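Render this sequence as a predicted structure.
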Amino acid sequence: MAIFQSAVTILLFIVILGTLVIIHELGHFVVARLSGIRVLEFGIGFPPRARVLGVRGGTEYTLNWLPIGGFVKLEGEEDDSDDPRAFGRARLPIRLLVLVAGAAMNLVLAFAIFFAISWLASPGGQLTVGTVESASPAATAGLVPGDVLRTVDGASFDYLEGPQEMTVALRDRAGQTVTLGIVSPTGVARTVTATLRPASAIDSTHGALGIRFQTWDFSGSYVERNPISALQVAAARTVGAFRLILDGLGQLAGSIAHNPTQAPPISGPVGIAVQVGDVFWQLGPIFTLYLAGLISANLALVNILPFPPLDGGRILVILIQALVGNRIGQTAERLTYFVGFVIIFGFMAWVTYFDIARQLAGVGP
């Protein structure tokens, strides 16, 4: 069973990461084609080449042996070209737009994933009661520690939003009589009514219901929203994903500066693959899709960083060339990309070492 789960985890990781990278490259491809730039090759996977799938519109579509991701090869992207459709001959805004398009596609995909989940199948949350205040509405209604609160007036709540959504719903009904959906510690479901405290009696230590929760867990059910609310939630989650990634980059920079021999506070490919497997097997496909959205947002932000040979680094080089009158030689540009690639490869090897060490030690990042 363990071998089967490991095989499925590896396959799932390859499918998720490969799809996200192909979507990224598709952004470059579409904008280049629409801008009149010649696309020599659109490859699924990385070389060596397995076969040519076809040729259309001057573009060769290929299938390659390394199954993670894909690539787009543009005319004049790496060498000088006399072809008027070459990337290097396109106007500056067009070249910048082609390079930004990959990260934009990952960002749009992350938003689309968050929107679909928020609209159709947000994981429901449930609150396990830790303590019940004496003489509180909860005590009067018969709630006891260990009871699980799932609904308020029939409404379920989004696990991904945390317990605050349920807390706000109770506070908004201050002084009212509400119906609570409860599951007892023995698993028996029941509904109870409780008259909540009035707003004047609610403060930082006394809530509307009069309980302190022990845990906030996935209920096993799913919540639907109307499309307008789902758009708002998706936008907030996309912004939240960016903040989370920026915080992670800040923590990484601090870790490297203060103790480069310490395990970094991030995961590389091995760690991400393990996380994908853990989420899939423990929480299911919706949570796995949500994680894919986070990874897509991660790819968008990381790829736009001004570090060669990332898209952001290439944008930086193009802008410098424009400012100095294109006096940067092709050899110097290639050397810059090569050095950047070596640094990134070394960084990935360093992170992967700690990923493997964590798995051997049985600990997380």
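Summary. The CA atoms of residues 18 and 234 lie 23 Å apart. The two ends are 25 Å apart (CA to CA).
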